[in-house]
Input
Amino acid sequence: MISRRATEWTKVSFNHGAQNAYDPATNPNGIVSFANAENWLVIEDITDFINTHNQFDKLLSVYGEGFTGTRRLRSAMANHLNKHLKPVQDIDPEQITFGAGVTSLNEVCALITCNPDSQESIMLGRPVYGAFAFDLTMRTGVTLEYVDVGDTDQFSPDCVAGYEAGFEAAKARGVSIKALILCNPHNPLGQCYPRETLEGLMRFCAAKKIHLISDEIYALSVYKRRDGLSEEFTSVRAIDPTGIIDPSLVHVLYGMSKDFSGAGMRLGCVVSQNADFTKATRATCRFNSPSQFSMDLAAKLLEDQDYVAKFLDKSQGLLSQSRSLAEELLTEAGIQFHQRGNAGFFLWLDMAPYLPTNETDGDGWAAERLLSRRFAEAGVMMSAGEPYKAPSPGKFRFVFCIKEDAMREGVRRISQVLTQK
Ligand SMILES: Cc1ncc(COP(=O)(O)O)c(C=O)c1O
Output
């Protein structure tokens, strides 16, 4: 016998074991994955850095300074964020708490902002990063309110009206919203929120007395588009809260997984100016503490800002190139995609014209699932729009920062599936 909640968890599964990944030379029939948001374009660079810096002190073999970020790492991260996020008020190392990845800190944010069993909820615009649906709810008892803020233009200041309507609709159902989570730069749309929109959302959160949690894990994976339509990234910490919002309601999430192609490090942090929020985070992070080895390597990396500058410059150049290649291949294959965006690792595809709705009695979502299964059978993986709460069926998230040969092979397989039906 297992508990009721554990019985629910038996329905959930994540990667566990061998991947059967495509390799043109050694595994040509392996799976091409456009699913995981990993940056394979700079993976050799980060690995080289790690291999030349993995001299560990014996103190790293014990609990050391504890579970939530060494002073050395917190100082290095504060310095890094002060340089790159350009906060209005410098980020102090004491505002930073580390956990084993932003995934775990997203859960922590839900635990800290909402009371379970009290109809308290977190609001998000949609479409949005699909794993929020698990990460914020699975163990917390918190519910989510997805708000319609326009199919793909969540970024204009007009989106505030959508959040306002969503907040009131939830209230009318007895649901009390406690936080708004933003993903900036946005996953899956790859866009950055303009300053004006962020200010509007900060005012909204202040008026409703709710937390604003900004997941900025792609903050430095922002690149210049070849056609020039590039947007600047603005952190919520780069906006002066004076007269807008109490800074103790504003929290930022950041980590090593994306900008440093270091998801295997399992290192994320929350930056908060709210002392109680930070204390409670530190208490819960006992259960999702990062390893001392990862913290040591990350500190060495972030301390070397000359290396970081070169690394980011290379990464951003390659992201731009890889996106252009993906656009070319997809266009040749007759696949449409969201044209905006200059951040993150993905393109938001529109496969609605290819949905096999004639095989699903016109049910678009069932057709999306069927198409997704067909891609998997053809050896190509992509996240479908449904878990991302896409407003309409047929959307897929295509991660473009994989090696060129794998991308070409993957698009060939996608194209084959689409032309067969
Ligand atoms: C928006 C966003 N937040 C968090 C994560 C997870 O980050 P981590 O690897 O630090 O758990 C991802 C990974 O895809 C993401 O896209």
Remarks:
- The longest strand covers residues 176-183.
- The longest helix spans residues 305-332.
- The chain has a mean pLDDT of 95.
- The CA atoms of residues 263 and 411 lie 25 Å apart.
